[in-house]
Amino acid sequence: MNTxxxxxxxxxxxxxxxxxxxxxxxxxxxxxxxxxxxxxxxxLAPLGTAPEVWRFTGVHLHxxxxxxxxxxDLGVNPAGAALALELMDELDSLRAQLSRLESL
Amino acid sequence: xxxxxxxxVMGVERSATPDEIKKAHRKLARKYHPDVSKEKNAEAxxxxxxxxxxxxxxxxxxxxxxxLGADYQAGQDFRxxxxxxxxxxxxxxxxxxFGGAEGFDHSDFFDAIFRGMGGxxxxxxxxxDLRGRGFDMPGQDQHAKIQIDITDSYSGxxxxxxxxxxxxxxxGVAMQDRTIEFxxxxxxxxxxxxxxxxxxxxxxxxxxxxxxxxxxxFLPHALYRAEGHDVYMTLPVAPWEAAxxxxxxxxxxxxxxxxxxxxxxxxxxxxxxxxxxxPGKTPGDFYFVLQVVLPAADSDAARKAYxxxxxxxxxxRPRAGLQHPGGKA
Lengths: 104, 329
Known about the structure:
heterodimer, A: 104 residues, mainly alpha, Multidrug-efflux Transporter Regulator, Chain: A, Domain 2, 4 helices, 56% helix, B: 329 residues, alpha+beta, Helix Hairpins, HSP40/DNAj peptide-binding domain, 3-stranded mixed sheet, 11 strands
């Protein structure tokens, strides 16, 4: 007989789609002004032309969450958070390239 | 419990000014911020630094700490003196931190000095105080890193994880070890996050629990390495296989495959198996990266074979592309 499974089913954050501005704010505990700033900084690029119809993805949610934490913990402003995230992306891709070259 | 030297944690003198403490905190916070840092134990260090700053930035807490800690060294066994009660406990100071990185996730040492002593509602302060007043606040999200094998992403898998996190009971909120068993979703990539809804810290009053986010990393694998949803594997081939073409067998995470090496292949050539990378709505591709390996010239027959090759390829100039412009040929 099968014992009932107690495993929690998670989902992949980055696979989420169709998040509204409200959803995003709730999920990363941010004020909508901050999210609007991050969109204006070009860090988040939602579908849709105006805040009421913006649609975000899980990738945006993760970036917004990190930006919120950087602001809270390190006192950086939205422009600084955008710069930090872009530099971290670049670091990640350089690290991946390095490990590919090292494995040859 | 061990005495914590908050000055040492912050790397400042006991006589440091508030400004020096603030600067030291900013510098360390940037270095060990879990979102930024690749240092080992970054999260633990970051919490330790946040706790040290919480004490040293607040003149009353700092004075209480200095009074207690003057005779102690880091790591020394510490017992608060009998009847120790810092009076205001953490009630006033802690309020500003709700929702912040520090939250109520303090060390036992911190709790003993600023919270537990004196007993009774006054001594408890902070979090429990607000709970008693019907304060509603959603629980904090919790974050943890997990390392999985690349093959777990192909097949899906289950995992157990031990976490130390705040757990709510009738007596209030205390840090406890919790075991969580969860499913690793098929197709997850390194750098992505598994979200387990409602598995974070408990909320206060009507506030629901936070979520638990698992930051996924792949363990280094002997054969496979992932880049996004594509997966690469180095495939060693003999010089004649690369030159003349061959059919070889090779492992992939989804099983062994028969592979045609096209004639005239060089080291670094990529052979693609479409859709055999990490699974997903748009699955990645699998790449064999050819690497020509040479047999050792360790017998007469082997040396002869290389000598025959040399005489057969008299016109072959491996370094033809290295000639310096204007240099001698």
